[in-house]
Amino acid sequence: MQFFSKLISFLFNPLFMPFGGTLAYFMVTPRFSPPDNQRAVLTAVFIVTVAIPILFFFLLRNLGWISSSGLQQIRERKIPLYLYIILTYIVIARVIPTSYAEELYFFFTGILGALLACLFLVYFGYKASMHMIGISGLTTFVLGLSFHYEKNIILALSLLFLSMGAVATARLYQKAHQPHEVITGIVLGFFTQLITFNYWL
Asked: What is the CA radius of gyration of the chain?
C-alpha cells in the first residue's frame, strides 16, 4: 500500500495538473487549432509549469531551504508558492492570453486564485493539500468543458473523480495531511475554478 500511495502522489503531483488541463482542453474542444500551435502551447506550458519548478526545487533543496518535495513544513511552502504564482502569471500573460483560448485563460486564472488562497493560508500556519487543489481543480475544469461544449465525456470524468478519491486516500495514508486539510484542498480547487465559469461557461 505504501508503494501505491507514493506512486499515486507522484502521478497526481500538482505540478502536472496545469499541463493536464491544457491537454484536456485540446482533446475536448471542437475548435480547430493547428497541430503546430497545440504543440507550441503544450511545450510552453510544460516548460513553465513543470520543468522550471523542478529545477528550482533542486536548487532550493541544495540551498537547504526545503527538505523534501512534499513540502511538509509549512514555512517551506512560501518560496515555492511565490515562484509558482509568478510562473502561472507568465502563462496567463504570455502563453495563453484570453484572445487565444478563453477557457484555458480562465483555467489558469483559477489556478492563480487557488495558489494565492493557499499562500494566504500558509501565513496563518495552515497547510491545505496542494495535491487535492490540483486534482479537484482539474476535475472541475473538465466538467465545465463537458457542459460548455455539450460533450459526453462521462468516462473521463468518472476516472477523474475516482482519482480524487485515490489521491485523498494516498495523502491520508502517508500522513501527509489531516482530513480537514484534504477537504480544504478539494474546496479550494473546486471553487476557484467554479468562480471562473461565470466568465467563459
From this structure: 16
- Pick the closest to residue 129 from 183, 185, 80 (CA basis): 185
Q: Check if the beta carbon of residue 84 is closer than 8 Å to that of residue 115.
A: yes
Tell me the three cell numbers of residue 65: 531551504
pLDDT tens digit at each of 201 positions of the chain = 777 888 898 899 999 999 999 999 999 999 888 899 999 999 999 999 999 999 998 888 888 777 766 666 777 888 899 999 999 999 999 998 776 789 999 999 999 999 999 999 999 999 999 999 999 999 999 999 999 998 889 999 999 999 999 999 999 988 888 999 999 999 999 999 999 999 998
Q: Which domain holds residue 112?
A: 2-200
Phi, psi dihedral angles at 140 (to 5 degrees): -65, -40
How far apart CA 72 and CA 75 sit, in angstroms, is 9
Q: In sequence order, what DSSP letters do the residues of 58-88 get, joined into one string?
A: HHHHHTTS-S-TT--SGGGGHHHHHHHHHHH
pTM of the model: 0.92
Grid coordinates of 108: 489558469
Task: Work out how many domains the chain is built from and give that number.
Answer: 1
